[in-house]
Each structure stands twice: as C-alpha cells, then as structure tokens.
Amino acid sequence: MGQNILVTGAAGYIGGSVLASFVTRTSGPINAASISAVVRSEDQVQALSKLGVNVIQVDLSDEMALNEAVVRNEIDIVVHIASSIDSRVVSHLITALGQRRKASGEEVFFIHSSVAALFATEGGWLYGEVKDTDQRFEKEKQIGGPHPVRETNILVTEHAKAQGVTSLNVVVPTVYGRGSGEWRKLSVNIPAYTRASIKHKIVYKFDKDGSPPAVHISDLTALYALLVEKILQKEQAPSGEKGYYFAMAHRAPWWDVMQHLADALHARGLVAEPKVQIWPSDEMAAEYLGFPLLYIRAMCTSTGQLVPVNAYRLGCQPKWDEKRFLESMDDEIRAVQELDKVKDTVFDSILPSSRN
C-alpha cells in the first residue's frame, strides 16, 4: 500500500500533537510516509507550513473539496481528530477513502476519534463494565440516539464497511498536559477549571464525585502513532466492529484533582483559599467553564467502567499514572498562564441550545 497519511484537526490540541509526534520521528515507517494536514484558516496554514508537511486548507463540511483533497493527494490513511460528533464529515472522508481504494486497489484506513464519556451512565451507557474487546458496537446500536457521538460511532463502522474502508476507533478520555502542536496547546477540562478559578478566585467541584479515565497527551499521541505504524507495517490490528481502542492510562479522581488544583492555585496567590466549594448549580458551572449544559454531567461527573485491552495487546505502554498526574497541577496552571492565547473552538459545532 501507499504511505500517504492525512491528519484532520491538525491545528487543534490533540491533532496538532499527533502531527508533531509524526513529523519529529527520525526513523520508522511514519518517518518514511508522506503526511498531509487539514486546517481551517490561512493563519493555521502559515503556522503548520514550517513543519514540512502538505498543509491543506479546507472546510470539512464541503464534500467536494474534501473528496478532492483525499483523492488528489492519494491518501491511504486518515487520522480523524477534528470532531467526534459531526457525522457529515465522517461520511465525506470515508466515501473519499472508498474512492481512493477503488483507484489504487489497496487497503485504506480510517482512524476515528470518539469520547470515553459515552461509555458512562451519564453518557447513556446501560451495560456497566465494558472492555474495548467486548461487543460494544451492537450495544451502541441497541442504545441508539439521540447522541451525536454514538450516532457517529455507528456510522463510522457501518459506512466504512460499506465503502470497503478499514476503520479503527480511538476512544479518547480526559486528556491533560501541554500539547506539542503549532497552534492550540491546551486541553479542555483542567484549563477550563483553572481559568474559572482564577477569574472568580474560588475553586468549585460538582456535588457528585467522578473518576473518569484519563491520559496524558504524550501517551495518547503514542497510541495514534502505534496504530499507524501497525497499518504501515501491514500488521494485523482489531478493526471494524472489533476495532475500538480505549485510550486510558489511569483514572482522574475528580475531587482529588480539584483539591490539588486549589492547593496549587492558592500557593500562587490566585484563589482566596485552598478550600473547594460545591457548584451552586449546573447552569453556573456551564457558564463559568464554557461547557454545554446538555453534556456537563457527562463531562464532569461521570466515571464509567472502561477496561482497555486492545491498545495494551498491541504494545501500548503509558508513561503517566494517577500519582504523576495529581502532582502535575502546578504545571497545568503554568501552561494556562503561558499558552492561553488561542480561542477554544472545541464546542463550536454543538448546537447553541446545548449551552443553555
């Protein structure tokens, strides 16, 4: 097969870090591949062009432009990180890959990015503990909609199969740590809490504790790289209905996280006291954090009984654990102070009604 890789969301936190991980390799199959990156603006084109990759400015909702980008650049592997909820983009990319497969006669691959909160009770999951080797796809279909992430997951598997495209689905949990991309370098959750705490001089937590799965950005990018390497080396990896990968390294005990954050902020003189208060309401939390109210419980109080198996079987070895994570809160605060310059657009595609 060819070695042409396309990364979407390449100006984002995760996508940019994945791209950086790919282009900084000095050996191995990814180093020998041709890499293209999709961005939305001319400023992002300028920022990423220095990396020596083929930067494509395209509106992902433009089916014809997206199809042309995939076919003209002879893309064999799409690493889709731009959105987990926009089924139109997923459909366009997979259809274009199907055309590429017919033209080349070679296998093509679509690596999707989903979210772990979908497999928690707050996200509508009804079946308790779940391994990524279980029959999650059939259970997702049984639950059905309306949930844009679940509906997109189902579409990925079904549409890829119909188009002759091999699909893999990386289920992304809470991500933390400094990004290594050229544009957006901050994650979502902890920076949001940090901004709100500094602005209002107080740290809040929800009335319900949660312990969601979590992963450091460097461990997450290592998983994406591992999957792409397996593909390039023509090694077998679970795909399709069996191709889910829970990108979980450890859990994030949220009340403990908030206490560590409060201690670190107070030590810097950024909050009035190290005591963590309960949010007076979900509405206030959504407003202060900038999260959509419709999903705030799933984002901030969920736990989920996820058990990662597939990634570890392939050789994934995370370097960060819970203890190291909790001890890194001062680094998270410093990152916000130094890097909080790019507007967070992660929720721009969610309906406005979900914010209020």
UniProtKB/TrEMBL annotation:
One of its GO terms (cellular component) is cytoplasm. One of its GO terms (molecular function) is aldehyde dehydrogenase (NAD+) activity. Residues 3-74 form the NmrA-like domain. InterPro entries: NAD(P)-bd_dom_sf, NAD(P)-dependent_oxidoreduct, NmrA-like. It comes from the Eukaryota. Signal peptide: none annotated. PANTHER family: NAD(P)-BINDING DOMAIN-CONTAINING PROTEIN-RELATED, PROTEIN YEEZ. This is NAD(P)-binding protein. It comes from Mytilinidion resinicola.
